[in-house]
Model the fold of this input.
Amino acid sequence: MNADPKTVAQRFYDILNEGALERLDEVCAADIKGHAGAGADLTEVKRAIGSLLEAFPGLRATPRHVLQDGDLVSTWVTYEGAHQGSYAGVSGTGRRVRFMAWDLFRVRDGHIVEITQACDLFTLMNQIGALPTAAPA
Done:
């Protein structure tokens, strides 16, 4: 596997787009450390991504801006899909969603050893109708 950090980050998104969570082991270190929405370890990273893919089958991640500084890769990502399964207590609505996220990967020896993920959940929850609407004044 190519050990270039940006290439490793792109492989992460390729695997996510294929829905092949079992293949995350190809790009994530067994002892990966996760922060924020990523989950604390590889099992939790897979669980977090898996819950998104269950609710939004066929979800597509498109990295928009990919910046590298040494072993760190920062990506601004657009996610797009359809809300088909339960997410945050909201049954599938069939609604199309598009939301942004930011990921920061630390890559060593061709594997992601640390991951931080932040997602625009406000936009996502609004698009699936999970947020209360404001009452008229």
About this structure: Helices lie at 5-18, 42-55, 121-127. The chain is about 25% helix and 40% strand.
